[in-house]
Structures are given as structure tokens and as C-alpha cells.
User: Which sequence fits this backbone?
């Protein structure tokens, strides 16, 4: 079993839709959690950190459930520019980051 | 913010040759740098952790004699793919860290290696 699991998608949604991605992790000692965005043939870029209390950044909301070892990302009012692969990233501590395989999102006009 | 420069962006080489990839932290000193590899439609896989002035720590299954890592200064780490084969063709990405951080860190722009 992979340490960080994501639904690979693809998710194809119309502009303006709300879409949610899920991620599970197996190492219960994991310390911090992130969502990264990766465009085709580019490096990943940090989208947002994920906190236990849940956090929001504009149209993006991230949730963490430590008991279930589950992380989510919600995107509201999808834009064409949101099309990308979203990576769930888990820090096991000491800069040891583990990446999910990513969920591909395509937002269509 | 922290900037990590990586080059070359892409390289095509013949089987059996060696390729060197550089990763530089431009506006900070990176005590630790990380090298990842990503095959198409797969996740980033950590290859090795590079600490300035000491030997790199390789992940299980990564051949240290094939993927030579040098971190001679606080701003530069290099990855050399020796005797490259077509199966080494991949997207190689570095990232750098300032000491012990628990927040997300910055990646280089990646190097697309094609071995023919």
C-alpha cells in the first residue's frame, strides 16, 4: 500500500463547479500536511498547508482528520486556470516529505 | 521568498554518457537539498537527501553509484546520472530546505532527461 493515496481522476468539471479531492495517509506519526499544485511538465508549487482546524484560502478549503488519516481539498467556483494536478503531501518529520501520485483536474468552459 | 534554481531544464543524451544537473538556492543557504524523480503520471519519488559537507542519504532502491550527489556548499547541490540508460529518462526535481522546517518547501523548475 502506498503511504499517501489519492484518487488519480481525472476529474472533468465545468467552470463554476465545486470539486473535492481526497487523500489518505498511512503513517500516523505524520506531522504536517500540504496540497501542492503541479502543472504539466512543471515543478510542484505549494497551494496551501492543511491544519487540523481546517483552513480556507479564497476558493480553496482544506481539511484534515487525523483520526481517520484523511485530508481533503475543496475548490469552489472552478476556473479554467485551476486545471492542473493536485498533489497531497505529507511530512513525516525532519523534512521527510511524501507525495501522493496526484489528482488530475480539468475545468472546461 | 526562497528561490531554487535548477538547470538544465531539459537534456537529451546518448546511452552510456553522464549528465550533471545543478540545483542552487539563490537567496538563502540550504543545509539540506532533496532530489526527486517523477515518471509520467506518477508521484514524485524521493531519491536522496543531500546535506552540505556530508554524504547523501539514498532511499532504498536508488543506486548511489549511479546517481552521484555532491553538496559541496550551502547553495549548490549536483546530481550526476552516470552511464545513463533509456530507463533513466524522467523528470528530476530538486528542492532545498533551511534547517528543520515543517512547512512546505520550494522546488527547482525540474530537469527533463531523455536518454536515447
Assistant:
Amino acid at each position: 500500500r502506498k503511504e499517501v493515496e489519492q484518487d488519480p481522476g481525472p476529474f472533468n468539471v465545468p467552470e463554476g463547479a465545486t470539486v473535492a479531492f481526497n487523500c489518505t495517509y498511512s503513517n500516523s506519526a505524520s506531522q504536517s500536511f500540504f496540497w501542492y499544485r503541479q502543472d504539466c511538465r512543471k515543478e510542484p508549487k505549494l497551494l496551501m498547508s492543511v491544519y487540523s482546524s481546517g483552513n480556507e484560502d479564497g476558493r480553496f478549503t482544506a481539511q484534515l482528520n487525523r483520526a481517520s488519516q484523511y485530508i481533503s481539498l475543496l475548490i469552489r467556483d472552478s476556473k479554467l486556470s485551476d486545471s492542473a494536478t493536485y498533489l497531497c503531501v505529507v511530512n513525516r518529520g525532519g523534512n521527510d516529505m511524501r507525495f501522493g501520485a496526484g489528482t488530475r483536474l480539468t475545468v472546461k468552459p | 521568498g526562497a528561490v531554487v534554481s535548477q538547470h538544465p531544464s531539459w537534456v537529451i543524451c546518448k546511452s552510456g554518457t553522464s549528465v550533471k544537473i545543478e540545483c542552487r538556492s539563490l537567496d538563502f543557504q540550504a543545509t539540506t537539498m532533496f532530489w526527486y524523480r517523477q515518471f509520467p503520471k506518477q508521484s514524485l519519488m524521493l531519491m536522496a537527501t543531500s546535506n552540505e559537507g556530508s554524504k547523501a542519504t539514498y532511499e532504498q532502491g536508488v543506486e548511489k553509484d549511479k546517481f552521484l550527489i555532491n553538496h559541496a556548499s550551502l547553495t549548490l547541490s549536483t546530481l550526476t546520472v552516470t552511464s545513463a540508460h533509456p530507463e533513466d529518462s524522467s523528470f528530476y526535481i530538486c528542492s532545498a530546505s533551511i534547517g528543520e522546517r515543517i512547512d512546505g518547501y520550494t522546488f527547482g523548475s525540474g530537469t527533463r532527461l531523455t536518454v536515447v
Notes: The radius of gyration of chain A is 13 Å. The mean pLDDT of chain A is 92. The first strand of chain A starts at residue 4 and ends at 6. Chain A has no helices and eleven strands.
